[in-house]
Amino acid sequence: RFSQNFREVAGRFLASEASTHLLVFGLEQRLPPRSELVQAVLRLFREPAPKAALRRLERLSARGARVRVTIEWLRVRDDGSNRTSLIDSRLVSVQGSGWLAFDVTEAVNFWQQLRRPRQPLLLQVSVQKELLGSAAAGAHRLVRFAAQGAQAQGEPQLELHTLDLRDYGAQGNCDPEAGVAESTRCCRQETYLDLQGMKWAENWVLEPPGFLAYECVGSCLQPPEHLTFTWPFVGPRQCIASETAALPMIVSIKEGGRTRSQVVSLPNMRVQRCSCAWDGAPVPRVLEP
Amino acid sequence: LTEDQVLGNLLQQLGLRQAPVLDKAEVQGLSIPAHVRAEYVALLQRSHGDRSRGK
Fold first, then answer.
1. B20: which chain A residues are within 8 Å (Cβ-Cβ)?
2. How far is A283 from chain B (nearest CA, A)?
3. pLDDT above 90 covers what percent of chain A?
């Protein structure tokens, strides 16, 4: 509305086409301190819809009436404003009942990045109707989830699958006394790169004469098979550099017959930390401010 | 990290295709100015604090 290139277009709120539920999970101390979250699954129990309402709706769509169920992570910022992040969204038939599972790993990943003391994990579940028109009005209300404290069984559940990093993680720096064997647990090993001994660096790289680059060596314990269902194409856990630092250098540059020195920074040159990680696993998104 | 990777990274940062060949005589009289050294030290200190998260 503040752009001069566009005229303001006002909209009118006609009717609510969605029903929304807010789920609150107190997660503090539910995730062990030295653990890695593998997957978080939200399970919602869908109660059966009234048959008469279903028959009326079925006549409208040959494919069968469906609604869209969307899971969002709700974050209350320090200034009191709300921000939502889309976690999962899918079409669900209005027929049938039983458990529905949603992958909410990303929401828990976001929650873990919050400053302490952390607010509870807030998941907003909204059910929107897919078909337009007055005949489909109220379709979203046919998909109802069992509520917490409801008499019937099936209150919302949050399943957290974690790995204990004391067994499945890396061990920090390698023991310089012990050699690296196949059985060595993933660790960071000192490796010195001598730039003075490299022919191409002669008279060109002025600083540093060499540097400790470090490398990640050793193997990682593989988790039980039932935990690898999350990502079907994911490889085994490997010992990789999870944090790196830049390396500044001073080099000599020749310009127009004159030689001068210049500083350049090479990214990801020094390994700061090694970790065990699944090859091909999705990288968790960093929480935006 | 291999020698080739260091060289490749350096060439990329400087926008060069190959490593320049400099005579010893060309750099012998070259002293690193104070402001260049100060920039280098500042970057060195910062690189200990700033860590980039990889995979």
1. 204, 253-254
2. 6
3. 38
Kindly report the nearest CA distance between residue B35 and chain A, in angstroms. Answer: 10
Q: Are A127 and A17 in contact (CB under 8 A)?
A: no
DSSP state of A219: B
Q: Does B40 touch chain A (CB under 8 A)?
A: yes
Cα B49–chain centre separation: 18
How far apart CA A193 and CA B10 sit, in angstroms, is: 14
Instruction: Search chain A and give the residue with CA nearest B10.
Output: A266
Residue A212's identity, in one-letter code, is L
Contacts of B22 (CB under 8 A, 6+ apart): A202, A203, A204, A252, A254, A259
Q: What is the DSSP letter of A282?
A: P
Q: Can you tell me whether residue B3 is helix, strand or coil?
A: helix
Name the β-bridge partners of A25.
A121
Question: Out of A244, A251, A277, whose CB is closest to B51?
Answer: A244
Say if residue A224 is exposed, middle or buried (CB neighbours under 10 Å; 0-12, 13-18, 19+).
exposed
- Residue A208, number of CB atoms within 10 A of its CB: 16
Structure tokens at A285: 């998104």
Tell me: cis bond preceding B33? Omega within 30 of 0 counts.
no
Kindly state the helix (H) or strand (E) to which residue B12 belongs, with its residue range: helix B3-14
pLDDT score recorded for residue A149: 58
Q: Identify the pLDDT of residue A1.
A: 46
H/E segment holding residue A56: helix A51-58
Q: What is the DSSP string of A173-199?
A: B--SSS---TT-BSEEE--EEESTT-G
At B34 the pLDDT is 92
Q: CB distance from B4 to chain A under 8 Å?
A: no
SS3 A201: helix
User: What CA dihedral angle connects A36, A39, A42 and A45, to 10 degrees?
Assistant: -130
What is the interface pTM, i.e. ipTM, of the complex? Answer: 0.86
